[in-house]
Amino acid sequence: MSFLTRSRLLFGAGALTVLGLGYACAGRGSGSLAGTAEMAQRVYVAPGEKDELYAFLSGGFGGQLGVYGLPSGRLLRTIPVFSQHAENGYGYNEETKAMLETSYGFVPWDDLHHTALSQTEGDDDGRWIFVNGNNTPRVARIDLTTFETTEILEIPNAGGNHASPFVTGNTEYIVSSTRFSIPVPNRDVPIDEYKKFFKGQISFITADQPGKMDIAFQLIVPGFNYDLARAGKGPSDGWMFFTSYNSEQANTLLEVNASQNDKDYIAAVNYRAAEACAKAGKGVRAPAEYRHNIFDEFSRIARSERMTSVLQIQAAACPGSIYFLPTPKSPHGADVDPTGEYIVAGGKLATVIPVHSATKMLKAIAERQFEGELEGIPVLKYESTLAGEVQEPGLGPLHTEFDGQGFAYTSMFISSEVVKWNVETRQVVDRAPTFYSVGHLMIPGGATRHPYGRYVLAMNKITKDRYLPTGPELTQSAQLYDITGEKMKLLLDFPTQGEPHYANAIDAKKVVDRQVKFYKLAENRHPMVSRSERETGVERAGRVVHVRMTAIRSHFAPDNIEGVQVGDTVLVHVTNLEQDWDVPHGFAILGANTSELLIMPGETRTLRWIPRKPGVYPMYCTDFCSALHQEMQGYVRVSPAGSTVALTANTRRGAQARGTN
Ligand code: K7E
Ligand code: CUA
């Protein structure tokens, strides 16, 4: 930004402040006039300018991923992942339905909690972002050249895929661990025989080859609740740390029964040792039913593969692959600092923040400083791995992020604040209130070796009085703080979609240059593609009618179709002939029991329609694509079943050509 622009901004922000005064004076303001102007200036992205960061916020129970610009907080896009998305037909059109197939059938929704950008040598590389589906255990890959979900892998033997999809330093693996232990394999057993039958599992999923996600192995672990995870680096390279709670193994009233033990555990997995053990034949290929859904780059059609087995290893059979680190109390977050030396747990009910040392852990393992064993897994002595505790941090510590300058930032759910502390001395150095009940925090690059720093984003669970009310359901909210100085400074509130849990942000430069602007028509391998209007037409195969159609500014070809009958399954395959950026066409037809199609340039999308009544059905383009967009329309004539009206389509504009009947 030039100096001139900056000064103009300052001036503009002054005007904003005057308008905002009423609210600022009314109470929870953000300080002085000058303070507000400075805040506005820091987050204001002038018309025509762009944000410096992409932020990807999980959509929680919305099942999707939100793309925001930072520092402005502007919503740029919703990427459909686990939920059907009528806006662009994801999960409704014939090409993408298979993405939502599972071993339970078609599951059109999930609860998306965590995001993980792909990494190379411990830094974000901008290739993909991975996300988890918590309810029907799944992980997904989103390609950041197209901002599309291109792969989904279901996780067997999991009930609540929560500790997921955290990534290793070169994206060798993403992980999945189960929040709810279940019988493994899942079967019909009495619930109160939990301790006998219920198991946890920790899965390592190969992730560095697009289209080839696969469960390398599942480590079977005690029936606790596994909550979050983070990969090690530096001295903890090769390790993955998982928090667990409910070490009591309660199966009812967990609010009381899983809060008995003073300490639960961090499960520290040496995944190279586990991998070697699995490769050495110590595992068992167990039957398991799950799906691997892949989106083909050239046909742009998803297919769902049925998987039938998974490699399982038992902790006891693979000594050295997993250790328990006692950790107070019902820990939630597990976070590793940029150097890889410190592992921080957020104990929801703990009065301190425990900080483990990777170096001490390795030494304690070498010296066998164990206090016991749990189902064959050594339990290290608390003191043997502890670097120290942050005293009186606040109430309800959940998640910690790092700025790369030696400071950690922990969210305090109960006392609604962000607490900044020194990683080495573990002294609290600053606090900032959040509005209200903060869950995850996110520092751009905070999970990498080199945090980008500058901001911390707090994602809040409760907003109460922060926004204009919208009935019983109020918006969720994020808050952006400046962290470049000694003290955190609140810059911005912005509403979010669904309930964001975790998020990632990345320097926009790592993503913008790799954008796909359109799909090449010449490379379109969809079996029903029409690469020109000459290739369009209609065809009947029994009760199925295929319509091959093209869309280009500003007409469909064909745009008059006759001879469709009530009860036919009509498959309209629309190819967008445009070869230019930002020219999608839409397609919708009266009474269709599905969403529209939104067809990107060069791709083919299919709408399934079973007309129920005779009549003439208008169809039209839903995306205002040109000055003659309103003219982009047509008709389908539907006759009673058994009618003698021939199937025809005006495949060339104006001329009434016969379809292949
Ligand atoms: Cu919301 Cu990461 Cu599911 Cu904590 S989790 S807040
Ligand atoms: Cu095409 Cu509007």
Which ions, cofactors or small ligands are bound in this entry?
sulfanyl-(tricuprio-$l^{4}-sulfanyl)copper, dinuclear copper ion
The quaternary structure here is single chain
Which structural category fits the helices and strands? mainly beta
Apparent shape: globular
Average pLDDT: 93
Would you report the number of β strands? 46
Main sheet: strands, sense, barrel: 11 strands, mixed
Instruction: Provide a count of the helices.
Output: 8
End-to-end separation in angstroms reads: 63 Å
Beta percentage is 35-45%
Q: Determine Rg (CA atoms, Å).
A: 27 Å
**What level of helicity do the residues show?**
10-25%
Give start-end ranges of low-pLDDT stretches: 1-30, 653-661
Can you describe what's shown?
Strands 6, 7, 8, 9, 10, 11, 12, 13, 14, 18 and 19 form an 11-stranded mixed sheet that branches. The radius of gyration is 27 Å and the shape is globular. It is mainly beta and 661 residues long. Helix content is 11%, strand content 43%. The chain contains 8 helices and 46 strands. The chain binds sulfanyl-(tricuprio-$l^{4}-sulfanyl)copper and dinuclear copper ion (CUA). Sulfanyl-(tricuprio-$l^{4}-sulfanyl)copper (K7E) binds next to strand 27 and strand 31.
Summarize the structure.
Helix content is 11%, strand content 43%. It has 8 helices and 46 strands.
Please write out the topology.
Elements: H1 3-25, H2 33-43, E1 53-58, E2 65-70, E3 74-79, E4 101-102, E5 105-106, E6 115-120, E7 123-133, E8 138-143, E9 148-154, E10 159-163, E11 173-180, E12 182-183, H3 194-197, E13 198-206, E14 214-221, E15 225-231, E16 239-245, H4 254-257, E17 263-270, H5 271-282, E18 284-295, E19 302-314, E20 322-328, E21 331-336, E22 342-347, E23 352-357, H6 358-366, E24 370-374, E25 377-380, H7 382-385, E26 386-391, E27 397-402, E28 407-412, E29 417-422, E30 428-433, E31 438-442, E32 455-460, E33 476-482, E34 489-496, E35 503-507, H8 509-512, E36 537-541, E37 544-552, E38 555-557, E39 560-565, E40 569-576, E41 585-589, E42 597-599, E43 604-609, E44 615-620, E45 633-639, E46 648-649
Parallel strand pairs: 14-19, 37-40, 39-45
Antiparallel strand pairs: 1-2, 1-35, 2-3, 4-5, 6-7, 7-8, 8-9, 9-18, 10-11, 11-13, 12-13, 13-14, 15-16, 16-17, 17-20, 18-19, 21-22, 22-23, 23-26, 24-25, 27-28, 28-29, 29-30, 31-32, 32-33, 33-34, 36-37, 37-38, 39-46, 40-43, 41-42, 41-44, 44-45
Helix pairs in contact: 1-2
Bound molecules: sulfanyl-(tricuprio-$l^{4}-sulfanyl)copper (K7E) and dinuclear copper ion.
